[in-house]
Design brief:
It is a single chain. With 147 residues, the protein is mostly helical. The chain has helices spanning 2-20, 24-41, 48-64, 69-94, 101-118, 125-138, 141-146. It starts with a helix and ends with a helix.
Amino acid sequence: VLDKAVSEAVRAAEAIGRREGLDHAGRTAKANEIAGRYLDLYGISVPDDLLAGMVAAEEFRLYYEPTDGALSRSAIVDRAIEAAVMAAEHSAIQGYIENVPEAKKHYALAFARAYLEEHSVRLDRQLIEGLIEAALMRQSPTEIERA
């Protein structure tokens, strides 16, 4: 849960940062906040300095580690779908969107499409929708009940 929280928080903060015009420090602070709130949902307490270190490591991995060809395309698609699902959940919790399945699905789809477009990856809309549904099905029953 900890790795997922940090990974998705960095991606969500990147998207929010683009929308809100945040600089790198602002995006990092937002990632720390999102990861902390996500972990709070599970009753997991992590010291701030440890969480900040994990966020920094994830940012480095995401932005600076080299990737190659097909692997990078697959990784981009995976990241887009995971980030889209988490961003939709976060946006619903924060009240940015209505906390109902259709609104979250619409938000996740738009998020994933924008993320993929940003990385020059083209996928059919139905395929993206299917990948989002699959990601939701991989979540634990507790997480699905909260959706």
